[in-house]
Amino acid sequence: MPIALLVVLSTLALVAAGCGGGGSGSGVISADGSSTVGPFTTKAAEDFKASGGVDVTVGISGTGGGFERFCAGETDISNASRAIKDEEAAICAENGVEYVELQVATDALTNVVNAENDWVTCLTVEQLNTIWKPGSKVSNWNQIDPSYPDVPLKLYGAGTDSGTFDYFTDAINGEEGASRSDFSATEDDNVTVQGVSGDKGALGYFGFSYFEQNQDTLKALEVDGGEGCVAPSASTAQDGSYTPLSRPLFMYVKKSSLADTEGLADFVRFTLENEQTIAEEAQFVPLNQEQIDEQLQKLENAGA
Amino acid sequence: MASADVSVAQASTTALPRKRVRPGELAVQAVLFAAAVISVLTTVGIVLSLLLPALEFFGEVSPVDFFTGTTWAPLFLDAHFGVLPLVVGTLMISFWSSLVAFPLGVGVAIYLSEYAAPKATAFLKPILEILAAIPTVVLGYFALTFMTPFLRDQIGLQVEVFNALSASLVLGIMLIPTIATLSEDAMAAVPRDLRDGGYALGADKLQVSTRIVVPAAISGIIAAFVLGFSRAVGETMIVLIAAGQLAQITFDPRQTIETITAFIGATGNGDVPTGSIEYKTIFAVGLTLFVMTLVMNLVSIRLVRKYREVYE
Amino acid sequence: MSADLAAMETDRKSRALRNRLFQIAMLSCMFVAFGTLVVLLADTIITGWPALSQQLLTGLPSTEPGEAGARPAILATLYLGLLVLFFSVPIGVLTAIYLEEYADRERWWNRAIEVNIQNLAAVPAIVYGILGLAFIVRGIGVGRVVLAGGLILTLVVLPTVVVSSREAIRAVPDSIRQGAFALGATKWQVVWRQVLPASIPGIATGSILALSRAVGETAPLIMVGAITYVAFNPTLFGPYTALPVQIYNWTKQPDADFQTLAAAAAIVLLVIVLSMNAVAIFLRNRYRKQW
Hints:
The complex is a heterotrimer. Chain A is of the alpha/beta class. Chain A contains 14 helices and 13 strands.
């Protein structure tokens, strides 16, 4: 009977699915966290697999979400675009999750406007603060500077689970999490790219790599942190002249997984050793050799 | 019921011995009942999984603030938990999509039921089913990449990149098959006699359709409308991709908004950190959504029962 | 008299005009609906055609659009479909049999089950996602694995399977049952040997349609963590990403190449979904019994 045949075939297929599959299951390294760092880790995972390594899965729940899972023991690696908070570290300690903090790249947090925005090139930190501070009612470009045209200001930014959000609000508004709330917030920076690309009066912020990939529809603003207008770039991020928005990007690695999870130590070492290649491929700001060696040493000390 | 018939049959022949229930029959009944109970367990599960964290949430946030507040900024330092912007966003989408789906859907139904030849109907109904089968993620993509540019460039509307209108239009089109099939079923159930009576009295097709068939089928049409509306309320992907994530109270469909479902989908993406206030907002909001669709469903059942014309 | 005739003439003409307009209006409703469908399909196919390649079907996801493929996602979608079929059909059909053949309508709990299923059919898919997260991923602790996704999708389509199975069973004439009873069959024998075989085409149609819906669902899977980047074939207890979720992720990338890729993946998904629908329609037409 055809129905019986169908049932038998489907059961066989399910069983095959359950047992088969190469290189997956318990041998999978799981990474989650920042959507800024995500593309970097994904690139590293791809290159690692191409050179014969094990599989790595990469999620983008946001820096905060990533830490929640990491400190609950659910992931091996937590990608973060800011340092771990004290409260988060406490939860990790409570759950017995020990980790090593590794810097894997640098980022120039970039403010972007639509490519057709021809009136602004540089914003001071004070101006950014006026725009983004809690309770701000700035809704038009001419409120930022009277010489700007009468164009409604549409804001796009990072969601509250995002390390980008934490870092930006800390640097611009003086306190992590302090921000006006009436903007399009998303953990996924791609949505911000879409929003700003499509709106002439839009202003948004995210990691430098997202700007680099979309230079035809977006324009990066220079930021005046007190020493004059500085444009975000690999060099200004590396030498620190792009302040206050240049920031380190991290991978937090669970120490117990270094011993238990096959391939994790190799993956992390691979990532660090090839950091400059990966960073360039993924369009991130690479570390200099000195910084790489420093991170490799940290890894050694952690017992890998 | 079949079992009643059997016992009647047995009662009328006095010579037969008493009915012996085979133990296998009891086992079978138990298994069947267990299967049916799974659906009940699902509902219980939904209610529990929503209710408990939501109650915790309402322990920390006053329900008054939640239901009447006009700012939705639950995860910011200066947190506001007014759900109204999300509700308004949801209702806006449902309203505009119903405005599209309902007239078009009923129109399609009238055409299929009153005008189309049987061969044409046999050909057209599967096409309607195809429209209904398109995955919502594809529709959301279509709304963002085709409909929004179309509205901007071709129609000249000043819509934002993420706006309620594109999403509503596409969602409305997606709902047409739902409304059309239910309405058409209701219209098909109207007996021919009623139509023939109308024609016999000299009515034309327009009058028969609008004054005889539609009123006679009104319960089904209302049910279709409510079902379509409630599906619009519950729709996630189209609004998540195309309508935006800016919780604001606005009645201008060209603006960016955020619906309840988009908030849940965006916030629950990949992870819900247990115990934090963020976790609980999802459940409070999810509970609101569940109650909204539940109420609509019950209303629809009542309305159908009230207006149903039974033709025997 | 002639004045009346004249009045009747104009009256008839205007009526004829009104009727014509009405017919055109109804017809245009059809055109809008189908026209949009055509535009949607055309737009998707035209946009995605360049990226439709063997690479897409057999390759692994990548940060380079030129090298990205959706094999793990496609496989996961097919596995999820099988899981849904495996779970929802038995449970759904058994529930339908219970409600149609065994349940005494007078009992409150049977009426409650009926209303319950009706309500479940109206619950938004994302709420099932929340349920799945709380109970299946966390509660039972299965984790963010294919099995969890399959179970949740099963719950999403279960009400639909129950409803369509009930209709199929109900369509079997009572005379069939009576004849079997008259021959001395037990209740279960009647169901198993007469009613069920007669209603299989209807059940199959309904199940396949429900399946095609499950395969296209995205929201519940997002809630239970169908992870972004999965570069290996999925297994029952392993992490996964499904085709609709993959499309969703690619849609969000503003890089135009990924948009093309998303459209191509959408074509693949449409092919899967529409073929299931075609099979269902074929079954319905072929096996439609005239009692």
